């Protein structure tokens, strides 16, 4: 998994976010794990009520995870995803293609 951003923040203040989105013929959804600086894990499984591609599901997982982490009190977040496309777009390495 690749990290999306790192700030110069004391490790005792950094929250961790692990996300994974998935899409199948049965539907799409996301898994989110938020780890507090104290090591507490908050785990969520979300089923979307809309169709999404794998990449869209990954983005949704990231956005949902970031919102949930913020609501839980996170102000410094290190996010991880298994999608190289998403990580590189967030880091600015890749640009998203525009729809035709």
TrEMBL record:
One of its GO terms (molecular function) is nucleic acid binding. PROSITE patterns: RNASE_H_1 (PS50879). Transmembrane segments: none annotated. InterPro entries: RNaseH-like_sf, RNaseH_domain, RNaseH_sf. Residues 11-100 form the RNase H type-1 domain. This is RNase H type-1 domain-containing protein.
């Amino acid at each position: 998994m690749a990290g999306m951003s790192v700030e110069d923040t004391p490790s005792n203040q950094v929250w961790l976010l692990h996300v994974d989105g998935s899409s199948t013929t049965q539907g799409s959804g996301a898994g989110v794990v938020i780890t507090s600086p104290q090591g507490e894990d908050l785990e969520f499984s979300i089923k979307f009520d809309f169709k999404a591609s794998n990449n869209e599901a990954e983005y949704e997982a990231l956005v949902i995870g970031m919102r949930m982490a913020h609501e839980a009190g996170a102000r410094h977040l290190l996010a991880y995803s298994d999608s190289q496309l998403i990580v590189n777009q967030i880091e600015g390495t890749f640009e998203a293609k525009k729809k035709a």
